[in-house]
Specification:
Alpha-Beta Plaits, four-stranded antiparallel sheet, single chain, 2 helices, 73 residues, alpha+beta
């Protein structure tokens, strides 16, 4: 499963790395890519939106929700 989330507070490669590590620590077999400029986090694997939100918030960023794949918003 592939899902994209909107996140604010990604200011550098360092903050992107921290967010990616927080999400991948949730469970095995998750692959995370962070787009700093767009403020998007792409998560491949099965994990709930709730857990992603908690991981993002736990490192000081703002979780803005999943991107609707139908509208791109």
């Amino acid at each position: 499963m592939n899902k994209i989330y909107r996140v604010s507070g990604l200011r550098s490669a360092g903050s992107a790395s921290v967010v990616a590590r927080a999400i991948t620590a949730l469970q095995t077999n998750l692959h995370v890519k962070v787009d700093i400029e767009e403020g998007l986090v792409n998560v491949q694997g099965r994990v709930s939106d709730y857990l992603v939100a908690r991981a993002v918030r736990s490192v000081g960023c703002d979780y803005l929700g999943p991107l609707d794949h139908r509208t791109g918003e």
